[in-house]
């Protein structure tokens, strides 16, 4: 994204450009466990800062929220605080969903990386692809609370 900042600025002068940057955690060690080959979250936050400095409306997507992995306040608070410091105008989250193809890869990975959570996930996703109802509400509650506590969404002057 940052190598195209000049292009994004030019587009933003004629159209309202908006960039969404996925950052699942601010913890580089946890990030490496979750996405082995993905950019470090510190690099992603630097990209948010650069985009915001160029006047590009930038949101952070904390997706997916995974029960017992990155859904707790101890993981979410640093992410939201860092997103605010970087100038993101909003932070959005969504729970993990596991369709059959993803489930067949995710559950063995989970057994290896977080074996203590494997049974919980097998129960949560035994008969459904998406978390629903009170299960989803409980998972999202810390994020929703911290989102407000950290001042999101942030106002963007000059934007409708």
Just name the CATH architecture of the largest domain.
Alpha-Beta Horseshoe
**Rough outline:** globular
Sheet with the most strands, sense and barrel status: 3 strands, parallel
User: What is the CATH superfamily of the largest domain?
Assistant: pyruvate-formate lyase- activating enzyme
**Measured on Cα atoms, how large is the radius of gyration?**
17 Å
The total of beta strands comes to: 3
Give the helices and strands as they follow along the chain.
HEHHEHEHHH
Low-confidence stretches: none
Strand content: 5-15%
With strands numbered from the N-terminus, the spatial order across the biggest sheet is 1-2-3
- CATH topological fold name of the largest domain: pyruvate-formate lyase- activating enzyme
Compute the separation of the termini in Å: 24 Å
Helicity range: 40-55%
Derived structural class? alpha/beta
Tally of individual helices: 7
- At the first level of CATH, what is the class of the largest domain? Alpha Beta
Q: Domains counted in the coordinates: how many?
A: 2
Mean pLDDT: 92
How would you explain this protein's 3D organization?
It contains 7 helices and 3 strands. It is an alpha/beta fold and 160 residues long. It has 2 domains: 2-96 and 131-149, pyruvate-formate lyase- activating enzyme (Alpha-Beta Horseshoe), CATH 3.80.30; 98-130. Helix 3 packs parallel to helix 4 and helix 4 crosses helix 7 (133-149). The longest helix has 17 residues, at 133-149. It is globular, with a radius of gyration of 17 Å. The two termini are 24 Å apart. The model has no long low-confidence stretch (mean pLDDT 92).
